[in-house]
């Protein structure tokens, strides 16, 4: 509570020193990570930290100032310098705190706290959890199971923390987050000097979610690494592609960036003037479900304190909204929406991935991307891919050293099937998506 | 350690606590940094920000094991607690080594200004930054009336750190770094394109001269005009001439990461068994140079107290050194190469590149282009990535040209290049005599840590790469 009082004090101090409005965001996090190499502990890290971000609105100007030195004299000095620095900028009347009517309201500060969306509070010092033992145990099913294994890395870790937000219009809120994760990576000896590797990560918002997944982690990583052996390019041409849920964000990110108010304001968006128009196949319905219980990133309000809500982003292929924070809404002379997405969800189809793979003569299942980029203004993209070639649903060979190229709008128009295998990822809930007629070079 | 208000005796006590349970090495790293940023988007969207970061990390090494803990409170009790946390990596119940007495501080060679830097820039300096960005915007708009928006930002960071270890080494250092970037969007006959460029040096704000303004504006406008005529070409396997300068990303991705000795120690790199072997043409020599005056990857001492150096990693085609931190150096029984770097006190140091570049050869760029019947020339990049074990790497090409019958023809953009490190090296046939180390803002990511680096190269011809 002492730290929360400092955040509240900082808001008052900013006003006392000359800011007309201010917001404080205080974040504290504890983390633990154990890494093992070939079933020997190699690194152990246990840390905690706190940081305060102050957003100052001074004479129609705006500045952001942050520090991890949480004593009053340091903060006061930061605010004084910050106010002086902000006064040197040009006036920008669009910089304001949000309309208080849009704030999340739960009646009281304590209620906000109780409505934290975590399924259960994180057991930081659970006596039944021995992170070192768990990290060592993850690799056991794999070590010695394949003579080609050169190296095995396993990790077990957890993060838990909270963020308190307060502003000079009276908003106060605290949100808690936690996750526990485990990771395994396997390197295998291939022909020549090649040592392909692949890994797998499992995570939960608490230990109870993660622990049942640990026995399967090593075998999943080994399976993925084995399909890297002998991976090679296939004949260039136009292919059906399937994209695994865990790597789908590479294709979704450019769409989300193009919906962002900042990029629209800066004329850097290939979705300019596309609101309520068809931007993807009618199969695609993408929603933001920030209050979905148990999701990573679930929250009751955004960084401005504005309440979150279920929001259709793309409905049957039609673009339903842009992301306008208070500032960019004012810049664009429109109504604010949300600063960005929190928990993305794609509506699943009715058939399994394997059933759909069996439909096609040849499909490349993308299991990872290697570099590449998307031109934010035109939507033209090129990404390196890694994956596997399937023929009539049968896995044939690993694929590497190839690019997919095209335009982002065309890619999403080419979405042709959605599987039923929804997976929870750090960004949301996604099934395997299938695209047709994609240029593979 | 005066800045961190901690005495030599207290540091020795903290290191002794770290060694208490059988560690064979320990170090403590103090850091205080201030990052100022001023940005201007269009006419009136301007913003200032400043971040102050302060803390210390204790590292404890026992054989191949490492324990690490940091604290944001630099006091004896907090540091002793961090030392005990980090020492949990050890299994023993008594010390096996003692803390050495601190050696007298040996002056380091200097490659940039590193004393009396201001953690808090003055109001006058900040005011000048705002004016500088406004002038940049005005010059861009004057240069081409089709420009529909502009953006610019200046980031200036001063990092003051100190390191002491159980061997008795002790260093204090100040590092400046200043980045400026400028971008704009142009609209012409229904086509909209964006371009940006940047400069970054280990310098203070005095690098922001009027001649730099002109240079940035000229480069940005050239890139905009180029983008208006460029196309996304048909891909495939083809010869690629990589232009001097930013093409150093090839070295960074294709070999640099795979030479980092933590990957070698764990047997994960495709180059694990290649030390002292001929891996490419004898015309090729590649260095990782931490001593290049003022460049972004230059350091006087690395983040574990090893003085910087220029390390020849490929000498006349032979792999002559990996990039070592203290842990890998001890594993291989060699001297550390000054590549132990970290993002901040929140992270352990790991082997990282500094300024990585290939030395000039004997051909000319025009000869290399003339030797290609059908291929591409590339010289503007972003987004590199590598698979250390398989050796596959990629980087994104923002700009280049088709080469047809030995001549540069159609401008091209937005393509990805994929290759395999060892194969690409052996496919380099022709190194020009025009080495340029790129002055742009290159940042390398590894294990969740970012580090400033630079890269460079003379023009080279790679016989075959996948372009798509």
List its salient traits.
heterodimer; A: 441 residues; alpha+beta; PmbA/TldD fold; 2 domains; globular; B: 468 residues; seven-stranded mixed β-sheet; 22 strands; 21% helix
Task: Characterise the protein shown here.
The complex is a heterodimer of chains A (441) and B (468). Chain A has helices at residues 2-16, 72-86, 109-114, 131-138, 207-210, 214-226, 249-259, 261-265, 326-331, 353-359, 408-413; strands at residues 21-37, 40-58, 61-67, 149-167, 172-188, 197-204, 237-243, 286-288, 311-315, 318-319, 344-346, 362-374, 380-391, 394-407, 415-418, 423-424, 428-430, 433-440. Chain A is built from 11 helices and 18 strands. Chain A has 441 residues and is α+β, with helices and mostly antiparallel strands. In chain A, the strands form 3 sheets. Chain A has a 6-stranded antiparallel beta sheet. Chain A has a 6-stranded mixed beta sheet with strand order 10-9-8-11-17-16, with no helix packed on it. A 5-stranded mixed barrel of chain A has the order 7-12-13-14-18. Chain A has 2 domains: 2-226, PmbA/TldD superfamily (PmbA/TldD fold, 2-Layer Sandwich); 231-441, no CATH class. In chain A, helix 1 packs parallel to helix 2 (72-86). In chain A, 22% of the residues lie in helices and 37% in strands. The model of chain A is unreliable at 108-123 (pLDDT under 50). Chain B has 468 residues and is of the alpha+beta class. Among the domains of chain B are: 123-161 and 175-229, Ribosome hibernation promotion factor-like (Double Stranded RNA Binding Domain, 2-Layer Sandwich); 236-467, no CATH class. In chain B, 21% of the residues lie in helices and 39% in strands. Chain B contains 9 helices and 22 strands. Chain B has helices spanning 8-19, 76-86, 123-143, 210-229, 249-256, 261-265, 326-332, 365-370, 421-426, and strands spanning 25-41, 45-62, 65-71, 147-165, 170-188, 191-201, 236-242, 286-289, 310-315, 318-319, 340-341, 350-351, 355-358, 374-386, 392-404, 407-412, 415-420, 428-431, 436-437, 442-446, 449-457, 460-467. In chain B, strand 1 and strand 2 (45-62) form a beta hairpin. The longest helix of chain B has 21 residues, at 123-143. The mean pLDDT of chain B is 95. Chains A and B meet through strand 2, strand 3, helix 2, strand 4 and strand 12 of A and strand 2, strand 3, helix 3, strand 4 and strand 6 of B. Strand 3 of chain A pairs parallel with strand 2 of chain B.
């Amino acid at each position: 509570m002492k730290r929360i009082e400092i955040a509240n004090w900082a808001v008052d101090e900013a006003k006392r020193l000359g800011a007309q409005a201010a917001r404080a965001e205080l974040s504290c996090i504890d983390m633990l990570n154990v890494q093992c190499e070939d079933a020997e502990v190699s690194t152990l890290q246990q840390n905690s930290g706190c940081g305060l971000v102050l957003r100052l609105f001074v004479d129609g100007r705006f500045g952001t100032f942050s520090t991890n030195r949480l004593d009053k004299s340091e903060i006061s000095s930061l605010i004084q310098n910050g106010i002086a620095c902000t006064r040197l900028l040009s006036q920008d009347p669009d910089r304001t705190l949000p309309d208080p009517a849009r704030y999340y309201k739960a009646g009281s500060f304590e209620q906000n706290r109780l409505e934290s969306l975590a399924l259960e509070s994180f057991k930081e010092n659970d006596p039944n959890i021995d992170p070192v033992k768990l990290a060592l145990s993850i690799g056991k099913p794999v070590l010695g199971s394949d003579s080609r294994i050169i190296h095995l890395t396993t990790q077990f870790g957890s993060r838990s923390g909270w963020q308190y937000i307060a502003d000079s219009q009276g908003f106060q809120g605290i949100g808690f987050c936690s996750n526990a994760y485990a990771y395994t990576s396997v390197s295998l000896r291939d022909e020549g000097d090649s040592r392909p590797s692949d890994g797998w990560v499992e995570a939960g918002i608490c230990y109870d979610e993660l622990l049942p997944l640990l026995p399967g982690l090593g075998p999943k990583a080994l399976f993925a690494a084995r399909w890297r052996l002998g991976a090679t390019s296939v004949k260039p041409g136009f292919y059906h592609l399937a994209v695994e849920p865990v790597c789908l964000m590479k294709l979704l990110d450019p769409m989300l960036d193009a919906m962002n108010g900042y990029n629209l304001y800066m004329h850097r968006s290939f979705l300019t003037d596309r609101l309520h128009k068809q931007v993807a196949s009618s199969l695609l319905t993408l929603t933001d479900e920030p209050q979905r219980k148990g999701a990573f990133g679930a929250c009751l309000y955004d960084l401005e304190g504005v309440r979150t809500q279920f929001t259709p982003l793309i409905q049957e292929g039609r673009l339903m909204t842009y992301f306008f924070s208070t500032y960019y809404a004012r810049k664009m002379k429109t109504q604010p929406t949300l600063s960005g997405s929190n928990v993305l969800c794609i509506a699943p189809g009715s058939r399994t991935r394997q059933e759909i793979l069996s439909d096609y003569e040849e499909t490349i299942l993308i299991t990872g991307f290697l570099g590449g980029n998307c031109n934010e203004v035109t939507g033209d993209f090129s990404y390196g891919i890694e994956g596997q070639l399937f023929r009539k649903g049968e896995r044939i060979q690993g694929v590497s050293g190839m690019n997919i190229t095209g335009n982002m709008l065309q890619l999403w128009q080419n979405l042709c099937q959605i599987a039923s295998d929804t997976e929870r990822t750090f960004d949301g809930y996604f099934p395997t998506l299938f695209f047709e007629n994609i240029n593979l070079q | 350690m005066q800045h961190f208000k901690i005495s030599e005796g207290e540091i020795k006590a903290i290191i002794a606590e770290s060694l208490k349970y059988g560690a064979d090495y320990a170090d403590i790293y103090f850091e205080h940094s201030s990052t100022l940023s001023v940005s201007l988007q269009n006419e009136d969207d301007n913003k200032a920000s400043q971040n102050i970061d302060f803390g210390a990390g204790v590292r404890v090494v026992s054989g191949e094991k490492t324990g690490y803990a940091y604290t944001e409170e630099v006091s004896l009790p907090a540091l002793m607690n961090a030392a005990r946390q980090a020492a949990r990596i050890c299994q023993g119940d008594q010390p096996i080594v003692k803390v050495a007495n601190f050696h007298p501080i040996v002056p380091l060679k200097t490659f940039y200004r590193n004393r009396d830097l201001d953690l808090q820039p003055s109001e006058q300096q900040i005011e000048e930054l705002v004016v500088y960005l406004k002038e940049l915007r005005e010059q861009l708009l004057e240069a081409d009336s089709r420009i529909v928006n502009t953006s610019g930002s200046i980031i200036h960071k001063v990092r003051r750190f100190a390191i002491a270890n159980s061997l008795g080494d002790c260093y204090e250092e100040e590092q400046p770094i200043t980045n400026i970037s400028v971008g704009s969007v142009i609209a012409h006959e229904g086509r909209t394109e964006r371009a940006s460029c940047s400069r970054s040096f280990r310098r203070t704000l005095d690098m922001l001269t009027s001649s730099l303004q002109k240079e940035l504006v000229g480069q940005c406008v050239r890139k905009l005009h180029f983008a208006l005529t460029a196309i996304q070409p048909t891909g495939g396997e083809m010869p690629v001439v990589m232009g001097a300068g930013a093409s150093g990303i090839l070295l960074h991705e294709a070999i640099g990461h795979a030479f980092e000795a933590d990957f070698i120690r764990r047997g994960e790199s495709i180059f694990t068994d290649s030390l002292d072997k001929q891996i490419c043409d004898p015309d090729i020599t590649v260095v990782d140079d931490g001593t290049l005056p003022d460049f972004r990857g230059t350091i006087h001492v690395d983040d574990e107290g090893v003085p910087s150096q220029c390390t020849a990693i490929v000498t006349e085609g032979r792999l002559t050194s990996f990039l070592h931190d203290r842990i890998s150096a001890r594993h291989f029984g060699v001297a550390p190469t000054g590549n132990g770097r970290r993002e901040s006190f929140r992270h352990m140091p790991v082997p990282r590149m500094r300024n990585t570049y290939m030395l000039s050869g004997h051909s000319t760029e025009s000869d290399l282009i003339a030797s290609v019947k059908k291929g591409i020339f590339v010289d503007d990049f972003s987004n590199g990535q590598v698979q250390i074990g398989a050796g596959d790497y990629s980087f994104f090409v923002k700009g280049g040209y088709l080469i047809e019958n030995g001549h540069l023809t159609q401008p091209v953009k937005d393509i990805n290049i994929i290759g395999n490190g060892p194969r690409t090296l052996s496919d380099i046939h022709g190194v020009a005599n025009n080495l340029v180390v790129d002055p742009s803002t290159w940042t390398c990511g590894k294990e969740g840590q970012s580090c400033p680096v630079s890269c460079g190269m003379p023009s080279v011809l790679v016989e075959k790469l996948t372009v798509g």
